[in-house]
Amino acid sequence: MNSPIVETVTDPAEAAAVAEVAATTFPLACPPHSKPEDIAAHIENLLSPQRFVDYIADPAKQVLVVRDGAGAVLGYALLVYGRPDNDDALAAVESADGGAEALRAGAVAEVSKMYVLPDHHASRNETRPAHALMRACIDAAHDHGAEYIWLGVNELNERAQKYYRKMGFAQIGTKTFDMNGVVEHDHVMGQRA
Ligand SMILES: CC(C)(COP(=O)(O)OP(=O)(O)OC[C@H]1O[C@@H](n2cnc3c(N)ncnc32)[C@H](O)[C@@H]1OP(=O)(O)O)[C@@H](O)C(=O)NCCC(=O)NCCS
């Protein structure tokens, strides 16, 4: 199997392909109690092709995709640069090792989204596209000047938490997440970038 290729998306014409992967994979991150209508609304509001056009154009955001050797999108990530806009995430980063200095320097990045198609999770794809994607995210954040990188993950999403720990993240706090009006509980995880 060919090694996965990771690249930053700069062409808005790619937005539809990324949105398709986003719509397929978002439900995999939702807890069992999530209602299909709330999941659908979240996808429509935040993961539509137009939203990805906006993310690609936003200088404070970076969309990365991981592709197979033939160019098909296997997964994507969204980096968001700047201070966390969630108070609990901000407090968590502030209290983390290296976090306060990074905040003072304006050098913080969030891995806001990290999604890989189920047939290409490491258990089914020995080239481990999700690992290549996260390594590229950390490198991209570092190259962008970030000194600290953080993320939120649903408290019930043990698969993702385990993966994030393998990729060097540790829990630094908790926060809530509003999914179409339903309050979900997240772990905040972080590491120096
Ligand atoms: C999160 C994600 C990118 C991780 O990629 P991955 O290739 O699956 O990651 P890995 O297989 O290396 O790591 C996951 C670990 O969780 C384990 N795991 C799988 N299902 C699990 C479950 N239901 N509960 C607990 N652990 C689980 C895997 O066995 C693996 O551990 P191992 O390396 O000891 O075998 C990918 O699973 C994904 O896209 N998931 C759906 C979307 C999502 O949840 N995104 C994160 C949103 S915050």
TrEMBL record:
Record domain N-acetyltransferase: where: 4-193
CC annotations in GO: ribosome
Gene3D superfamilies referenced in this protein's UniProt entry, alphabetically: 3.40.630.30
CDD domains: NAT_SF
Record GO terms (molecular function): acyltransferase activity, transferring groups other than amino-acyl groups
Source organism, top-level taxon: Bacteria
Keyword Transferase on entry: yes
UniProt keyword annotations, A-Z: Acyltransferase, Ribonucleoprotein, Ribosomal protein, Transferase
PANTHER family xrefs: AMINOALKYLPHOSPHONATE N-ACETYLTRANSFERASE-RELATED-RELATED
Secretion signal, residue range per the UniProt entry: none
One Pfam family per UniProt: Acetyltransf_1
Organism (species): Gordonia humi
Protein name: Ribosomal protein S18 acetylase RimI-like enzyme
